[in-house]
Write a structure and sequence with these properties.
five-stranded parallel sheet; 10 helices; 38% helix; two-stranded antiparallel sheet; 16% strand; 240 residues
Length: 240
């Protein structure tokens, strides 16, 4: 599937236009499984590299800024975390930090992330061993993804850092292209179907299973008590 900007769904066109305008802090929210993380890692200028940071309650600052880790010589060496790597980029231009669900990060980590996501004029970090002060290289950008629908639930400090918020309600075309063509229409319709929604990941699993187990068994395993309705919808799609 060849994707052009004009063929992108409206939500993805907005994202592209913001990136092209030089916006370097964008929050993508909406249903899970629509390719938000994939787009954050691939769309726009990522010459300095793209670094993903999935947030959980159990994560530590080591994943953000870095930590001393055992090395091959039996000692400890500093290993940079995703945020510091994105700040440094390729050494000449900053990279892209893609933060998945920052709202799930614990207190200390959340505070560290806020620092790394601050404006370039204010953001800085001191290396605990060398004392060197790091600042983001020009070109650094940050994309945050979340499944939160109500932006009022975001902490004020975080909301302030991401003034551009785009609701993603359709799968990214390149993510959709990984599905067999007969499933794509349904995957688009079900991506934002409220409580009835079905993730793109579920369609991936069904697509793979049906090739070895058959369509009936695959649908029962993946879709459960909704299997019959899904199969009926597939039949209707095949006739249209």
């Amino acid at each position: 599937m060849t994707t052009t900007i004009d063929s992108l769904p409206v939500c993805w066109q907005k994202f592209h236009n913001c990136l092209r305008a030089g916006i370097d802090r964008i929050l993508l929210f909406g249903p899970a499984g629509t390719g938000k993380t994939y787009a954050g890692l691939t769309m726009g200028d990522t010459r300095g590299g793209a670094f993903r940071l999935p947030c959980t309650e159990d994560m530590t600052n080591a994943e953000v800024s870095g930590a001393f880790m055992p090395d091959a010589k039996g000692g400890f060496s500093w290993v940079a975390g995703s945020a510091l790597k994105a700040w440094k980029g390729d050494g000449s231009v900053g990279g892209r930090l893609v933060v998945d669900e920052i709202d799930k990060a614990g207190g200390d980590v959340f505070a560290t992330l806020l620092n790394f996501l601050d404006s370039p004029e204010s953001a800085s970090w001191e290396h605990p061993e060398t004392g060197r002060i790091y600042k983001p290289l020009a070109g650094f950008s940050a994309i945050m993804t979340t499944n939160i629908e109500n932006m009022g639930e975001l902490p004020m400090a975080l909301a302030d850092r991401f003034p551009i918020r785009i609701r993603i309600n359709e799968p990214h075309p390149q993510a959709l292209a990984k599905l067999s063509s007969d499933l794509r229409g349904m995957a688009v319709r079900m991506a934002d179907a409220g409580k009835q929604r079905i993730s793109l990941r579920a369609f991936y699993a069904f697509d793979k299973l049906r090739s070895s187990l058959g369509i009936e068994e695959a649908s029962e395993i993946v879709f459960g008590d909704r299997a019959t309705a899904i199969l009926e919808a597939m039949k209707v799609d095949s006739l249209s």
